[in-house]
Specification:
This protein is of the alpha/beta class. The chain is about 50% helix and about 15% strand. It folds into two domains: about 200 residues, Rossmann fold (3-Layer(aba) Sandwich); about 35 residues.
Length: about 260
């Protein structure tokens, strides 16, 4: 299916691995020029080499306002425009809410929440000029937070509210803003979680996987390529009437309305 993305220019953050890497490659396959931002230069170079079309690596720490400014400036210099922003960078620490430190909380908000907010604000004039679109990769913890996901759930809930806020502004300015909430996705961040579960319960890895799936209430873990395909659709003209959407892609784990 031709999504009408050929010739578009995109920024994808957290693009060196996992979901971000899959999104960058999917947009490149659809004909986009992609600025791939992350902190790992080597992984970004490997990503650029694997792309079927132009991917420009951009080493940046989006916890730093200067890193945000450099990322937007790099996209403008490389492409002369910006049509798509995919906010994806950010991981938060799990743990007992009483054991998590002030620094854990600050770091959790610094990269994911404030990184998304700063990059959205910095990129908005270019997106407005191009009648572009933003896709925020958030997470189902924003809808159904758990006791071990206090920071992540709080950050994600805030980002879902921010998505709705920017979608309302986007109606006026001609920018579409939506969010995707991935569930348990098969990336390099999932395996340590399975290992911790196995160690805690004295189980082999295969049994730990099976029990985690049961606890999540899903048939299988998701694939990063499935999230990437949804991003490409939401970023495309075929989703032109989708504004302020919060799309759960979690195998049916989220049952709240």
């Amino acid at each position: 299916m031709d999504l009408g993305l050929s010739g578009k220019a995109a920024i994808v953050t957290g693009a060196s691995r996992g979901i971000g890497r899959a999104i960058a490659l999917e947009l490149a396959r659809e004909g986009c020029d992609v600025l791939a931002a992350a902190r790992s230069g080597q992984l970004l170079q490997e990503l650029a080499a694997a792309a079927e079309r132009r991917i420009v690596p951009c080493i940046a720490d989006l916890r730093d306002p200067d890193g945000v400014a450099r990322t937007v400036a790099a996209a403008q210099q490389a492409f002369g425009r910006l049509d798509i922003l995919v906010n994806n960078a950010g991981a938060t620490k799990r743990g007992d809410v009483f054991a998590l430190s002030e620094d854990d909380w600050r770091d959790g908000f610094a990269l994911k929440f404030f990184g998304y907010v700063r990059l959205t604000r910095a990129a908005w004039p270019l997106l407005k000029a191009a009648h572009g679109t933003i896709v925020n990769i958030v997470g189902i913890g924003g809808r159904t937070p758990g006791a071990e996901f206090a920071i992540g759930g709080s950050v994600n809930a805030a980002l879902l509210a921010f998505t709705k806020t920017m979608a309302e502004i986007g109606i006026r300015d001609g920018v579409r803003v939506n969010a995707i909430n991935p569930g348990a996705i098969e990336t390099d961040r999932l395996l340590p979680r399975i290992k911790r579960y196995a160690e805690t319960h004295g189980l082999p890895l295969d049994e730990a996987r099976r029990r985690l799936l049961q606890e999540f209430g899903v048939a299988r873990f998701g694939g990063a390529d499935e999230i990437a395909a949804a991003v490409a659709f939401l970023a495309s003209p075929r989703a032109d009437y989708v504004q302020g959407g919060l799309v759960d892609i979690d195998g049916g784990a989220t049952r709240t309305l």
